[in-house]
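User: Sequence recovery, please. Input:
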């Protein structure tokens, strides 16, 4: 039996995307956030994105049916009775530990609890619950409705059965599971991508090449749809910073320490599209100022 009902904690970029793909797959979604405005924004973004899928003929159901599967709530107690709870709050260990404790208390004993963390240890998050066997990582990529891969990550105590249920859920929502057998810092995809992301930032920091030229080069020479900095602005510089810091703190390996230019930009509040300025600048309507 597949997943029928899911509770998502955090309705930002990732939580809203996950809610959308679940609803499009026929799953009932309860979307929770501490910020009411974030929930309203999430619903608007989901409606816009679902419309795009319908226009392109990629989704057969009508918008009202899909959106009707999503209920926004400001109360954690509604997590009882769901098959799967997915945490997608800010990349902050203390916050996630708190959310995992509350999730464990609120959800039924059979509910799987997953984190969408980019780099925080699943084992550590599982340790604050009384069900570490049923805790796993489900690492989606941004933008969630478009990106097909989802890493399914086992913590030390995650059972094979939980990992298989995670994998089946990914297939159920029409995505492709990438199985990660141990929750090493950064899992697999970020561990491969971050070294080049950091090198690109250092090249900019040292004045060797511009943000624009590096992105252009990567698009034209490496066949990427988006350059590193374009992707970085969409993801959020704070999210990338949080993930690199988590990897650094977990391993003590200086190669994961975020480059200075990234640390400075995060301190300055230049977080990417969401603040109107990151590696590039954006107008009110979200369009790039230089395009
Ligand atoms: N942005 C990406 O491309 C990306 C990719 C993969 C994984 N992730 C991971 O997904 C997670 C979320 O990232 P995001 O980009 O969606 O962040 P975001 O900043 O867009 O959204 C985070 C949301 O969490 C909410 N929140 C904060 N504390 C909360 C709490 N206690 N209870 C409920 N909601 C709370 C905030 O109000 C906000 O709406 C992070 O762990 C991040 O590392 C992000």
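Assistant: Recovered sequence (291 residues):
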């Amino acid at each position: 039996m597949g997943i029928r009902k899911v509770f998502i904690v955090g309705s930002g970029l990732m939580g809203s995307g996950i809610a959308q793909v679940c609803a499009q797959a026929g799953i009932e979604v309860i979307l929770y956030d501490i910020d009411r405005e974030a929930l309203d924004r999430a619903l608007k973004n989901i409606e816009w994105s679902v419309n795009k899928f319908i226009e392109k003929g990629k989704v057969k159901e009508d918008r009202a049916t899909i959106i009707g599967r999503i209920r926004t709530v400001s109360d954690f107690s509604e997590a009882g009775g769901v098959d799967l709870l997915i945490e997608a709050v800010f990349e902050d260990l203390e916050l996630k530990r708190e959310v995992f404790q509350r999730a464990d208390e609120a959800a039924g004993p059979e509910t799987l609890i997953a984190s969408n963390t980019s780099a925080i240890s699943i084992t550590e998050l599982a340790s604050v619950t009384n069900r570490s066997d049923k805790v796993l990582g489900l690492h989606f990529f941004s933008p969630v409705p478009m990106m097909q891969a989802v890493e399914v990550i086992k913590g030390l105590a995650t059972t094979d059965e939980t990992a298989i249920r995670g994998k089946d859920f990914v297939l159920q929502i029409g995505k492709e599971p990438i199985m990660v057998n141990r929750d090493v810092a950064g899992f697999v995809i970020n561990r491969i991508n971050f070294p080049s992301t950091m090198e690109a930032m250092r090249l900019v920091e040292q004045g060797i090449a511009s943000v624009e030229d590096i992105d252009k080069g990567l698009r034209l020479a490496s066949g990427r749809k988006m350059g590193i900095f374009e992707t970085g602005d969409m993801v959020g510089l704070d999210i990338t910073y949080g993930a690199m810091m988590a990897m650094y703190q977990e391993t003590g390996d200086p190669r994961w320490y975020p480059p200075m230019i990234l640390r400075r930009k995060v301190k300055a509040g230049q977080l990417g599209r969401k603040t109107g300025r990151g590696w590039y600048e954006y107008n009110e309507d979200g369009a790039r100022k230089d395009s």
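The chain is about 45% helix and 15% strand.
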